[in-house]
Task: inverse folding
């Protein structure tokens, strides 16, 4: 049993809750290892077809625990390479949808953890802070790559340089989150999407992630080629056959993620 996470599986959704509420779920090395392992296990589990990441208490995640890793305590680069980077890549390359239910403040690496999810549903109490510059650091955990792609260069640099909180309404307006919902309804709304995704064509979702991820750093010709390659894979799945059969029979498809 992990010490820093709560894990639960419901309707094909693995709910991963960061669980250090007294410090707004700030990251320790232990939490980094446990989250990496939990993501890996969710990726491999046949029972899991969507991952939902959230935080216990009033915060989503306050980034690195500054008490555990004060200035001079060791190489930041080493910590990033061995902990954070694997988590961010694990979420982005997972062949299953990853959803973040952002329940409160998401700061530093915690903000970028939310950005690394495929979709974000936020409570109206959520806020997002690229807090790094406040302590003389640069955004890490994928922030320099993910944030400009979500909100554009100007807003990304504003968030990174001024390091001010972006509230939930603004986050929705600028495309940082997909939906903002009343705080008490966050998990209901997030689970609605998560269950829907868990019942969807999992292999196609994984291929969508691969296609979109690759297109962001390539040209149109390469994207067209890669789409053709991915479509051959999707076209050979059981879920594709089921989708077409359901259309012809005028019924709802039953996708099995195969
Ligand atoms: O190794 C490396 O450092 C490299 C990797 C870096 C990745 C990073 O994530 S760097 C960024 C680290 N995070 C921060 O700098 C954020 C620090 N926290 C804050 O600025 C504020 O707590 C928030 C803006 C997030 C929220 O403010 P507020 O007023 O809502 O809450 P609070 O009162 O500040 O925090 C509540 C408690 O959580 C408090 O504990 P206490 O004093 O009541 O016992 C606070 O100390 C604790 N806490 C919050 N964030 C952290 C933390 N404890 C340790 N580390 C934290 N990051």
Result:
């Amino acid at each position: 049993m992990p010490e820093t996470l709560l894990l639960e599986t419901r309707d094909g959704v693995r709910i991963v809750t960061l669980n250090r509420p007294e410090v707004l779920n700030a990251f320790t090395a232990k939490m980094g290892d446990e989250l990496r392992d939990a993501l890996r296990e969710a990726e491999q589990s046949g029972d899991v077809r969507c991952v939902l990441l959230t935080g216990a208490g009033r915060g989503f995640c306050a980034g690195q625990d500054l008490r555990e890793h004060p200035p001079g305590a060791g190489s930041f680069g080493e910590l990033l390479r061995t902990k954070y980077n694997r988590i961010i890549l694990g979420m982005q390359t997972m062949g299953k949808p990853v959803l973040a239910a952002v329940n409160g403040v998401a700061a530093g690496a915690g903000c970028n953890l939310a950005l690394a999810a495929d979709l974000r549903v936020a409570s109206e109490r959520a806020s997002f802070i690229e807090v790094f510059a406040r302590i003389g650091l640069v955004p890490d955990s994928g922030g320099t790559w993910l944030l400009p792609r979500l909100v554009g260069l100007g807003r990304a640099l504003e968030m990174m340089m001024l390091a001010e909180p972006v509230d939930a309404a603004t986050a929705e307006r600028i495309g940082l989150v997909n939906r903002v919902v009343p705080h008490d309804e966050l998990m209901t709304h997030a689970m609605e999407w998560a269950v829907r995704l868990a019942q969807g064509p999992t292999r196609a979702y994984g291929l969508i992630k691969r296609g979109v991820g690759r297109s962001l750093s390539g040209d149109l010709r390469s994207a067209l080629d890669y789409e053709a390659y991915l479509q051959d894979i999707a076209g050979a799945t059981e879920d594709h056959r089921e989708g077409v059969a359901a259309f012809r029979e005028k019924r709802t498809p039953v996708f099995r993620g195969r």
Remarks:
- The chain has ten helices and ten strands.
- Residues 202-248 form a domain with the Lyase 2-enoyl-coa Hydratase; Chain  A, domain 2 fold (CATH 1.10.12.10).
